Every structure is written in C-alpha cells, then in structure tokens.
C-alpha cells in the first residue's frame, strides 16, 4: 500500500466499525433467508469490501493484509456469516488478479463485481477448440453465490498431454446450475450452495493450470510488480480469513457481556453473575484466548505485508505457519466461545439470544478443510520435523 492510501485504510477501518450494529440487526434475517440479506450486501458494497483486493486500475484499493485483518475483525464482530462470505470474496478477487490481464478486464469491468468460489478440484474437463475446455462437475460450499456474478472453480483436465492436470477457471455464475441445498446448523446466512456445471465451455483465457500458481508463476503481467499479488496462494488465503475469526470471538464476548449485568445463576446463591468467581475465570479464559488469536492474526498479516514489499521468497516453515495460524485462531475461537456459551445458561438456547449463533457458526468454520485446527497443526509439525509437505496446498 502506498503512503497516499494510508488515510483510505483508516477510513475503511472506521467505516467497518460503524457497520457492526447493522450487521447484527440483519443477522437473524439472514438465517431465515439462508443467505445474506440484501441490506447487508448493500452496506458491504458501500464500504467497498469487494474492491479491497481488486487491482487499482479497476478502481480497487489493493489493500494490504493488515488493513484486511482490521476490517474483517469489525465485520466478524457484527456477523460471522457476513465475515466468512467477505473473506471468500477477498480470496477469489485476489485469485482473479493472478489470471491473464484480459480475463481481469472482463471480470472487473464492474468494480462492484463479486466472485464466489472454492479451491477443491471436484470437476473434470476436456480440451475444446480454440484452447478452451469443456467442464463438468459440482462444487459445494459456494458462499455468497446468490450475490456473486462469477465463480472460481478447480478441477482436473483429464486429457492433458502429460496426464491429468489440475486447473483453475472462472465462469459466470449464471452459466451454472444453482442447487438450493444450504440447510445447515451454522453459517446459515452464508448461502454456501452447490453449483453444477454441465458441458460448460470455458474459453482459453478463463482457465489456467494450478501447478504454476502454487509456485507463484502467475499469468498476469500488469500485477507482476504489485506487492499484494506477490504472495503465495495459501498464505494469501490465510491472511484473508484470520481477522474474521478474531472478530467472531470479540462479537461473542460482547454478546455475552450484554446479558451479564443483573442476571443470576439459577440454583445458586448468585443474584448477579458478575459476582461469581466462576464467571471471573470463564471470561478471563475467553479474553486471553482472544488476545492470543489476535496475535497470530496480526503476526501473519505483518509477515505477508513485509515479505510482499521486500519481494522475499517464502520458506516452507513460513508457508506452514500461514496455515497453522489460521487453524490455531479457529481452535482458540471455538474454545473461547464454548466457554462463554457454557456460561450463558439454559436461556441462551433461544434463537433470540445471539450467543447460540456464535457457537454454531464457529463450529462450522472449524470444520472447513483449510481451517481445521488438527490438520493445520499436523502439517506445521511435519515441516518443523524437517519433512516435506504432504499437501500441495501450502
């Protein structure tokens, strides 16, 4: 980020903080709709969230990772589903910035474009005339699909010259079949439906092999010298998502404290929960876990920004840390919110009490394959032991 953009960064963070009441107000409506309410999306558009990881030549902000983290903390304080969806839009917008420049011209023709997507290669393709491919498959967990114009997808090109080859493509959401299957226990407002492709033609400029992307060999020419597009793919994705976890922890903590004053603990002598030593231990544990998660979130953000600006290569240990930082934040969040949920008592099970939503949302986030605390911790330990990674997603 240039010096002239720093005031813009402060303004983005301030405006994100101002959005928290609105996000909280519409969160219950989003659960009923099973997607983000239009009011929430409009407010996020006004903030410019989808421009934050967009190249400047299209009206984007090219935000650094610290700005992204600060903004996502506030969005997470308001609504976990909104924060989760925004993180997906950031990751996929950044990925589009790696595609050939002509593809970017097409996708970013509207600066308010939203791009959903997944990295799991659950489709197949064969070559077609003109260098294009024909794709078939189904992709689950497309958060924000109902409000997105484009989708990033991954699959396997089955008739490549040297054997099956993983690829990534970007296609219009309107060209896919939308399965209304998002009936879930958490992150209900994210609208993470399944999208299906049936004999979908993708032109040559809108698909690329994945292997070069994992070694930072990006097709874009115009973004080659832009710091935010120097990051390896997985650290970039991790830096896009850790802030929301901290925000979710803070949101749950704030929701808990709103109910505490004057609330007794049933079947005990405590007429005010604040007087109970048990409560003191519970809130202290949760607060310290939030502090630790915030440390990892900003450590990762600052690592990404520093290495981007210096153009430094990433070591394998640093790449593994990018994943374990995300996993550790998720584990800390689950632990902290479990404590606060337990301390909230039986009346907290009602839908009108926000803590039960925070509990369900963080449970689903921790089950995400790239977030899973155990998977990421194991990978980090493997690298610390001097072994090679057993996953290309690092």
Topology, element by element:
Elements (H helix, E strand, L loop, with lengths): L5 H13 L1 H14 L4 H10 L17 H14 L1 H17 L4 H7 L7 E13 L5 E10 L7 E8 L7 E8 L4 E3 L13 E10 L4 E3 H4 L19 H27 L17 H34 L5 H27 L12 H13 L5 H12 L10
Parallel strand pairs: 1-3
Antiparallel strand pairs: 1-2, 2-6, 3-4, 4-7, 5-6
Helix pairs in contact: 1-4, 2-4, 4-5, 4-8, 4-9, 5-8, 8-9, 8-10, 8-11, 9-10, 10-11, 10-12
Written account of the structure:
With 394 residues, the protein is of the alpha+beta class. Helices cover 49% and strands 14% of the residues. It has helices spanning 6-18, 20-33, 38-47, 65-78, 80-96, 101-107, 210-213, 233-259, 277-310, 316-342, 355-367, 373-384; strands spanning 115-127, 133-142, 150-157, 165-172, 177-179, 193-202, 207-209. It has a seven-stranded mixed beta sheet. The two termini are 25 Å apart. The model is unreliable at 1-7 (pLDDT under 50).
